[in-house]
């Protein structure tokens, strides 16, 4: 068996191509994830995120490129690899008619464990994921967050060193999202390598050490969240006007402060400014000169939303649901 | 090979454990066929002439065959649901035997088919059905029924993988199986049908299967029917099991 050594990336993807008919879902993707770190694969629906996860977890065969996980090739060593990875999907793939414990025992036995061992591991996981009270209830009685936790538990049955999470919090309420985030952070603290896909920029910002932005089958940017924000550069000035009809006047007055044209929606004007010091005073003075009343204004660092917008020319959630149809 | 057997048993267990928790399916196996037996015997029975037999003795082997052919519906519906809910993805990401998913499903059908055969035999005995057979013939008949049902489970497995939703599995299945079972000797003697339909009924494998059951259970002349039914079951199995497995590999590998 091939042993993964410390210097080798946990996930190593070179030139990955995968097409469905005429559509190139992945068009030459390169990724490298060091052991014990979290890669956030960020992109709109239809960008190719799910396809990438399906290739990495041996569900789909790549058309071209080499894809290795813990040093094992996803095509040649698929059988061996499957016992080293965990997958939790956006559908929360648990059997609704089985109880939480039955689900975990079934998965454990399909990993080749004896019933007693699988049961012991299942109970351990239920405890860890705070599902002990629900252990003997069919999963169809669970809330969305509980199902997602059970799905995550099922992915961890074999203690995989590499975990793939395909949109782990899509469709969850804010409280369940925080719970799932905390769980993922706990796993990472124990040394698990995680690749997670998400369309939520705050999720990537909080969880990921590295982010790869993917759009139309290409990785269009890579780096730490801070690096990506620095690439977009500049502070954002946001001005909320007292009256919406003054927007045009305000745009004209503020335009000289920025190298890029400012944008506006309703009574909010936004622009990227060159420097932080003196900006607020200058903005207030300029607006005062043209007689525009200000309700509120402030400076903020760019968010990953700004990164996404400037990289792809469209907002993260604005794209139609293409990928699920693929 | 040991993995295939143990994984198949795990999947079969999964499909059986969930049954009592989905009462609609349990009703489909038990209450519904009993209702059909009662309707046929007490509503149509008086108007159908079955020389040499009471209508109950004529009907029970036929309706059990029809029922067992429908037993595989659970496989069609279940596989379709598993595909759409991502459960097949989970199975495929595990180091388990690939074919165990289909093998476990169809094996679970054998158990549920046995259950519905028992329910129908008991119902029949209560309303006047009587065996004209040795214990070996009765047991052999049950074995033949389970083999025939097992073969049909693979037909339904293929159907469940081909259609886009459980609803369409339901309607396609009904459209295919209903005429096949009705244009056979299951409910009325073939001789009473018009010539064209009679020709079809005579070569219909359902007729052969039903006649085989009558030979085993109520002393009808056997002819080649028992062997014929056995061979038909094996042929259906030999055609549809590989087709379903191939389709499973393709569908799941999208």
Summarize this entry quickly.
By secondary structure, chain A is an alpha/beta fold. Chain A has eleven helices and 14 strands.
Task: Characterise the protein shown here.
The complex is a heterodimer of chains A (326) and B (254). Chain A is an alpha/beta fold and 326 residues long. Chain A folds into 2 domains: 11-227, Rossmann fold (3-Layer(aba) Sandwich), CATH 3.40.50.300; 234-301, YebC, transcriptional regulation domain (Alpha-Beta Plaits, 2-Layer Sandwich). Helix content of chain A is 33%, strand content 26%. Chain A is built from 11 helices and 14 strands. A 6-stranded mixed beta sheet of chain A has the order 6-7-8-3-9-10, with helices on both faces. Chain A has a 4-stranded antiparallel beta sheet with strand order 2-1-4-5. In chain A, helix 3 packs across helix 4 and helix 5 runs parallel beside helix 6 (174-189). The longest helix of chain A has 16 residues, at 174-189. The two termini of chain A are 35 Å apart. Chain B is an all-alpha fold and 254 residues long. Chain B has one domain (2-252). Chain B contains 12 helices and no strands. Chain B starts with a helix and ends with a helix. Chains A and B meet through helix 2 and helix 3 of A and helix 1 and helix 6 of B.
Percentage of residues in strands of chain A: 25-35%
* Proportion in helices of chain A: 25-40%
**What is the H/E order of chain A?**
EEEHEEHEHHHEHEHEEHEHEEHEH
Order of helices and strands of chain B: HHHHHHHHHHHH
Q: What is the helical fraction of chain B, as a range of percent?
A: over 70%
How would you describe the oligomerization state of the chains in this entry? heterodimer
- Average pLDDT confidence of chain B is 88
The overall number of domains of chain B is: 1
Label the structural class of chain A: alpha/beta
Largest sheet of chain B: none
* Shape field of chain B: elongated
Percent in strands of chain B:
under 5%
Number of helices of chain B: 12
C-alpha Rg of chain A, in Å?
23 Å
The number of strands of chain B is 0
Provide the number of structural domains of chain A: 2
Low-confidence parts of chain A: 317-326
Question: Which chains share the greatest interface?
Answer: A-B, 32 and 24 residues
Neighbour order of strands in the largest sheet of chain A: 6-7-8-3-9-10
Envelope shape of chain A: elongated
